[in-house]
Structure formats: structure tokens, C-alpha cells
Design a protein that fits this description.
- This protein is α+β, with helices and mostly antiparallel strands.
- The protein folds into 2 domains: 252 residues, Sandwich (Jelly Rolls), CATH 2.60.120.650; 142 residues, no CATH class.
- Helix content is 36%, strand content 17%.
- It has 13 helices and 13 strands.
- Strands 1-2-11-8-13-6-5-3-4 form a 9-stranded mixed beta sheet.
- Helix 10 packs antiparallel against helix 12 and helix 10 packs parallel to helix 13.
- The longest helix is centred in the C-terminal third of the chain and has 20 residues.
- About 3% of the residues have low confidence.
């Protein structure tokens, strides 16, 4: 990101604008430069299809595929066969998802081969390996590298700094495996790269999901087969080919069907372009929990119990979000402090891109990040619920961090001008 693009973002703040939906999804014949991608897709939260050139050099696209382009299940079994993997049964419904079990990859591949041999009619049903944290389980495996287009990834930056979890996943499954109707965790962005196979995506823009609710307010489980209201809009349909990458912006509900035997690599991610949506989602989730247990409000520890329930449902509570914002802000402040007298090449050599902002995005991107983060951080810090959860002796006071960020932003702009 350069100075001109940063200034443009101040004049064109991100937001959901359904008048911008003409011609969606954005399709690129060639891999776009980052600034064009940021301006036309990331900031306005518009779905996009990126071409196979983005993934053509990934080791997974050669090691994991046969000469005919189909999954090389034997190679996968040889490389990762003893790994325990999460497998969903697409033929069964548990609440609004598919029930899961753990299997070894070898056992899953044996099932897959049998399923194909029986013309995709295994008595075990249609099983789908989903949400496998392969990178976390095999950190030295050379599988792929995150494209620069998706590298402003605060969610995985924070997860890596805590060394507890990540939001990088591998999916693989036979023709007919699918994912029910949903929006992504924390209202994050996601990207999904097909190593092989084809997927059918059905998208609904933010707000359209409310037109799909039944009389009780419930969302559909399967938009292709469940009865929908008469006013239900038609989905945006996209067929994703082998090698292509789909960008799913924050808040877009979607359903996905594998049209062929398919392997994909997926990330969930949050950054300055969708941070407000994540904060709004957490606020709405807390309000929902409070309504559900309103009759217990007079109990001691009610606020903490609401946070605990919210975290069990969403994976994050207010204190986690506060720490998340603080970590990202501190990383950006530290990067900008290095700016005077240090070339970008030197900064890059000294930066571990798994633990902090990739410096190839540049100092103007760090300034943009702080520009988007600080208002949300102040909003979180001012929320009455956070005061009962955050111990000031353990966490830096918001005013200190805000002052430090504003100071380093001003100095960086001066040094870059």
C-alpha cells in the first residue's frame, strides 16, 4: 500500500453497500496487484475469484495430485496417514451443522476409495474431512505460501503469537460432500483455494439472509432443499475451478457443494477492512446471550457467565477481543518505530512473517491498520462490560496505547512524506 491508496481509503471508508453488487463476483483474468485488489475487493467487501496463477507454484498442487488432476490419495496417506483428522457426515444433521468424528487420515482415505468404488454410495454415507489444522500439526510441511492478497491477516497473526491455535484449514472430500448454509466465524473474511476439483458456491450478501428466515426466525440449513419464504432472493452462484481462489467477504452467508472429488486450502482472517463487523458481531452475540439468561441477572457473576457462554458459542469473548486488538496495535507500533534509519529490506530480514505483520505490505499499510483499529479499540475499552472483565494491572491502559499509536503514526507519516 502506498500513500495515495491510504489517502483514498480515508475518502472511501469500507462498508456494506448493496448498490455495488453489479457484476459480482469480481473476476480477474490475471493475478491483480495488491493495491487494485485492496481497493476493488478487500475494502468494499466484494466477493472475488482469483485465477489459478495465484496457486500454480504451490507444492500441494503437484504433490497431492495425480497426472489426471485428481487427488493423489496414496501420496496423502504416505505423507500424513497417521494424523487424526476431523470428518463430518454430510448425510446427518446436528443442530445446523454436520456431526463430526475423528479418524486417521489412512482410515478416511480407505473410506474415500470405497465410496468412489461404490459409485459414491458407501453405506457409511458421504463423509467430508473439514477444518483440519494441517499447518499447525505439521509446521515443517512445505504445502503452500499465503498470497500477499491475504497476508493482512490479524486473526492468524494473533493466534501465532499465542501459539495456541490457528485459522488455517485443509478440506478434502468426495463428489457430493458439502457445507451447510452459514456465515464465517467472528464474521471473518475467508479465502478458499482449490487444489483440485470443482465447487459450487451460493452467496447471499449481508442482510439478505434475513429474507430467508422462517416464521420462527430460523435460517435455513440447506438453501437448495429447504422451503424458503416467497420473498427469498436468488443466490449469487459461482463455480470454482481447480487452482482458483474464492474470496468470501465478512458477513456473506454461503453454502458450498463439491461437484467433484476436491481438496482445498482455506483461511479465516480479520483485518482493518472488516474489524468493525467483527466487533458488531460480538456485541450482538452478547446481547443475545443476555436475553437468553435474563432471568438469572441477579445472580453473582452473571456478566462473567454471559461472557463464558458467548465464548463457548463463538470462540471469543470481550477480553480475548481486547487482547487481540492490543497485540495487533503493539505489532504495528513496533514496526513503525523501526522506520527511521531502517530500509524496508532490513525490516523484512528482521521480521518473522508468521509472528507479526508481513513487512512486504509496507509502513503505509501499518498506518492504515492503526487508523482502523484505534476507534474499535476505544469502543471496546469504553464498553461497560469490559470494565468487569479486564484487569488493568495485567493489561495496558487504553489511553497509553492510543497515545503511543497516534504518536508513531504522525512520525511515520512525516518520515514517509
Amino acid at each position: 500500500m502506498d500513500a495515495a491508496l491510504y489517502e483514498w481509503t480515508l475518502e472511501h471508508p469500507a462498508g456494506f453497500d448493496n448498490s455495488r453488487l453489479d457484476g459480482l463476483p469480481v473476476g480477474f483474468a490475471e493475478v491483480p496487484p495488491y493495491d487494485l485488489w485492496f481497493r476493488d475487493c478487500l475494502l468494499p467487501c466484494k466477493p472475488a475469484v482469483l485465477p489459478p496463477g495465484l496457486t500454480s507454484a504451490w507444492p500441494a498442487r503437484s504433490r497431492w495430485l495425480r497426472s489426471d488432476g485428481r487427488p493423489d490419495l496414496s501420496a496423502l496417506a504416505h505423507e500424513f496417514g497417521d494424523a487424526l483428522v476431523p470428518v463430518a457426515n454430510c448425510d446427518r444433521r446436528q443442530y445446523d451443522a454436520n456431526p463430526k468424528q475423528n479418524m486417521t487420515l489412512c482410515d478416511y482415505i480407505a473410506y474415500w476409495n470405497e465410496h468412489v468404488a461404490l459409485d459414491y454410495r458407501s453405506p457409511q454415507g458421504c463423509l467430508y474431512l473439514k477444518d483440519w489444522h494441517l499447518c499447525r500439526a505439521f509446521p515443517k510441511a512445505d504445502i503452500y505460501s499465503t498470497p500477499i492478497h491475504f497476508s493482512s491477516d490479524w486473526l492468524n497473526e494473533f493466534a501465532d503469537s499465542k501459539q495456541t491455535d490457528d485459522y488455517r484449514f485443509v478440506y478434502m472430500g468426495p463428489k457430493g460432500s458439502w457445507t451447510p448454509f452459514h456465515a464465517d466465524v467472528f464474521r471473518s473474511h475467508s479465502w478458499s483455494a482449490n487444489m483440485c476439483g470443482r465447487k459450487r458456491w451460493l452467496f447471499y450478501s449481508p442482510g439478505q439472509e434475513d429474507l430467508l428466515r422462517d416464521p420462527l426466525g430460523n435460517l435455513p440449513y440447506d438453501v437448495m432443499n429447504d422451503p424458503l419464504p416467497d420473498a427469498a432472493p436468488a443466490p449469487l452462484e459461482v463455480i470454482q475451478e481447480a487452482g482458483e481462489v474464492i474470496f468470501v467477504p465478512s458477513g456473506w452467508y454461503h453454502q458450498v457443494l463439491n461437484l467433484e472429488d476436491t481438496i482445498s486450502i482455506n483461511h479465516n482472517w480479520v483485518n482493518g477492512c472488516n474489524l468493525y463487523q467483527t466487533w458488531a458481531f460480538l456485541q450482538a452475540e452478547l446481547c443475545s446471550v443476555q436475553r437468553e439468561i435474563e432471568d438469572c441477572r441477579t445472580m453473582q457473576g452473571w456478566e462473567q457467565q454471559c461472557q463464558l457462554i458467548m465464548k463457548s458459542c463463538t470462540g471469543m469473548d470481550y477480553q480475548d477481543f481486547y487482547l487481540f486488538l492490543q497485540t495487533i496495535a503493539e505489532n504495528r507500533i513496533e514496526l513503525l518505530k523501526q522506520l527511521p534509519g531502517t530500509s524496508l529490506d532490513e525490516m523484512t530480514r528482521n521480521q518473522d512473517d508468521r509472528h507479526g505483520m508481513p513487512t512486504m505490505l509496507g509502513p503505509w499499510h501499518a498506518i492504515f491498520d492503526l487508523h482502523k483499529l484505534l476507534p474499535v479499540f476505544c469502543s471496546v475499552a469504553a464498553d461497560p462490560h469490559i470494565n468487569q472483565l479486564v484487569n488493568d494491572s495485567l493489561l495496558e491502559r487504553p489511553s497509553h496505547l492510543t497515545t503511543a499509536a497516534e504518536t508513531v503514526m504522525a512520525e511515520a507519516k512525516w518520515n514517509l512524506s
